[in-house]
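Hi support team,

I've been running sequence recovery on a batch of backbones for a student project. Most finish fine, but this one hangs at about 90% for roughly twenty minutes before it completes. I'm not sure whether the input is malformed or the queue is just slow. I've pasted the structure tokens below so you can try to reproduce it. Let me know if you need the job ID as well.

Thanks,
M.K.
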């Protein structure tokens, strides 16, 4: 359930980790490496800038613009017809499940408020019925970490659903 910005954020974060490793290896006492270190520092700052822009949906440092952290997720979820796909899978006795537009909006709002990991863990646990251990093995996290993501997601659901 990743959208294009989630993938880009992960790629930029991985690139930034690699640059940080290189930055630590370079010795600032050696003139050649000192110059390379300055260039790598600039690249790390640029990565931070892009990551913040992708996460917030607005240019860093600009006070006007989109204020919602999950703007790309929200647009992606609204443009995808995710709810009817779920409805088709949950048909009982050949009677399709229908969700009113208002409830669909609430569901989109809830899903877009989750971080990528919260969304992955919550959907795997609640919708697909996987245990926390199965999710941990599937995603490559510790069971406790998965539990924390699910707990955070459940709290967000409780806050948004009256």
């Amino acid at each position: 359930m990743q959208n294009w910005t989630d993938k880009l954020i992960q790629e930029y974060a991985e690139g930034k980790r690699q640059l940080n490793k290189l930055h630590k290896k370079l010795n600032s006492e050696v003139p050649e490496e000192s110059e390379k270190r300055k260039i790598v520092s600039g690249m790390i700052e640029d990565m931070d800038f892009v990551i913040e822009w992708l996460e917030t949906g607005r240019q860093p440092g600009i006070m006007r613009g989109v204020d919602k952290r999950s703007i790309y997720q929200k647009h992606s979820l609204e443009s995808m017809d995710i709810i009817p796909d779920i409805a088709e899978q949950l048909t009982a006795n050949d009677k399709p499940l229908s969700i009113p537009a208002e409830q669909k909006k609430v569901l989109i709002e809830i899903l877009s408020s989750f971080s990528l990991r919260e969304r992955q863990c919550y959907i795997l646990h609640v919708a697909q019925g996987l245990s926390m251990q199965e999710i941990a093995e599937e995603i490559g996290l510790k069971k406790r970490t998965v539990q924390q993501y699910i707990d955070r997601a459940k709290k967000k659901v409780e806050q948004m659903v009256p």
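--
Follow-up from support: It reproduced on our side and the slowdown came from queue contention, not your input. The helical segments are 4-25, 31-56, 71-79, 82-89, 101-113, 116-127, 132-139, 143-160. No action needed from you.
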